[in-house]
Amino acid sequence: MLKVVETICGLIWLIALLSSSAGLAQSPLALDGKNVLSGEELIRALREGGYALYFRHGVRDTSVREINGKIVMTDCGTQIPLSSVGRAQSLSIGVAMRKLGIPIGDVIASPLCRTMDTARLIAGHVRADHAVLGNDPEQAQGLQDFARLFRILGTPPDRGTNRLIVGHRFAYEAMGRGPTLLEGEAAIFRAVSGRAEWIARIRAEDWQSYAAPMLEVPASLRSSAPDELLELRALSLAVALRTGGYTIFFRHADGGILAPDGKPPIATDCEKPSILPDTAREQAAKIGEAIANLRLPTGVVHVSSVCPAIETARLIAHAGGGWTLDMATVEGKALEQLLSSPVSPYVIRIVVGDRRQFNAVAGPPDLEEGEAAVLRSSGAKGWVVVGRILAEEWRILRACMLRADCALPQ
User: Fold this and answer.
1) How does pLDDT run across 347-376, given as a tens digit for each residue?
2) What's the rounded Cα separation, in Å, for the pair 126 and 258?
3) Could you report the per-residue pLDDT of 9-59, keeping only the tens digit for each?
4) Quick one: DSSP state of residue 267?
5) Taking the model in full, what pTM does it have?
6) Is 4 exposed, middle or buried (0-12, 13-18, 19+ CB in 10 A)?
7) All structural domains of the chain
8) How many Å apart are CA 95 and CA 123, to the nearest integer?
9) Which of 26, 140, 192, 210 sits a CA distance of 20 to 30 A from 352?
10) Degrees (nearest 5) of the Cα angle 359, 289, 267?
């Protein structure tokens, strides 16, 4: 409720500013959300054209710092550039859009280098426009920029095309559309009677999950390695996880004891108080503590029926704040369906199983004991693997949120 109140207040404030300067008599945005689109329905609509795709630029190189007051628009050396991940991410979006047959017409971007580069990598062409620079709306120039951005969003693109806009998080936040966009994420708008109606949000990795559905690939050819164009690391990964919308599959900690057939014992055979050695129990508990410290939006933990997975899940859940365990078989078609079903924003789905179960559905390479794969599904018959996290790397992700040294091993 507080978020809603803050959003509405921010919008009213901006509208008042715009009205006082530009004489606008009504809200420049339609906020009812009656025509929200998702899944294949959204992709079909984009193929027909008529929408504005507002992207936040791709992932920045956070090792570079801008000096306040020293940014020169024509000198990229004075600005924070895209990282190699941001460039690959933007290229991936463009490739996927072309595969999907989504027509792009007019392309505009903030004149800063990271936004111009994002637009070029996605669409191949761009023209600079200060309307999406994100200047302070309390200043005269900022007011004019925001007023013109609203007019652009409220004007339909050329027939049969979509307008692509690349800007910064400030402009999107000022629109009053809720939490900020992640780097590389897009908000979709449709012009209705001179106003911009919000339609959807699409994350950078969603375009590939629409363009190349994983479930259309035979299980033997799938790969659980992170997508080389979409892998999130360090701060970008930590921020994405805090935002939710992902599935995290953990391979259980070292099981220690195997049944006579060489497989981990199942729940009905768990006779010992602990099937895990002390080192594995400590590992699982530390993972749970790190997840709790990161304040990831978790709830239910899905766990397979093998004993090491059950104990690992209990330890993670207990250390992380006592989440609910769903003691179900996480295997075969059931696991495939779980991984391919979308996760709501602001929610993280956790699944704990064994290596064999995961590889049978998601493919190689093997996860190490305690390692996690981070998957994103848009509901397009599959998923994209955006990262893998070793057990000891969770503490590093916590350091990222504290703005401390958070570089993950290459």
Assistant:
1) 999 999 999 999 999 999 999 999 999 999
2) 59
3) 333 334 433 343 333 333 445 444 567 888 889 999 999 999 999 999 999
4) G
5) 0.83
6) exposed
7) 20-206 (3.40.50.1240), 219-401 (3.40.50.1240)
8) 9
9) 210
10) 50
